[in-house]
Design goal:
Blueprint (H helix, E strand, L loop, with lengths): L1 H38 L2 E16 L5 E12 L6 E8 L2 E6 L11
Antiparallel strand pairs: 1-2, 2-3, 3-4
Length: 107
């Protein structure tokens, strides 16, 4: 009986970790897609790829995961550039990728 209980706890922990990872990937995908749309570039492959995972401390003091994702985009349809997103939970911490093409007037 204790073995079954331990197995259930381990399975629930693995499922929670997997579910949080999928939620972060879906959020990163939405952010990448929106950034490409705002910059007027083509979002390639329609997906993000997890390239990093590390343990970090969130703003509230609790330990959590920081996940790094990469995505590809094209400016003119013939080139390929790499963008990168860093997520802590569901918050975007860092972004490098396409920027808007418009000129911003200086004040």
């Amino acid at each position: 009986m204790p073995t079954l209980l331990i197995l259930m706890i381990v399975a629930a922990t693995v499922f929670a970790f997997w579910s949080a990872g999928r939620a972060a990937a879906e959020r990163a995908e939405a952010v990448g897609r929106d950034a490409c749309r705002a910059a007027g570039v083509q979002w390639l492959d329609h997906s993000v790829h997890a390239i990093g995972l590390k343990l970090c401390r969130h703003d509230n003091g609790w330990l959590g995961w920081e996940r790094t994702f990469r995505f590809d985009y094209s400016i003119d349809g013939e080139d390929r550039h790499v963008g990168k997103l860093v997520m802590r939970g569901d918050r975007l911490i860092a972004f490098s990728g396409p920027v808007t093409r418009g000129v911003t007037p200086l004040h």
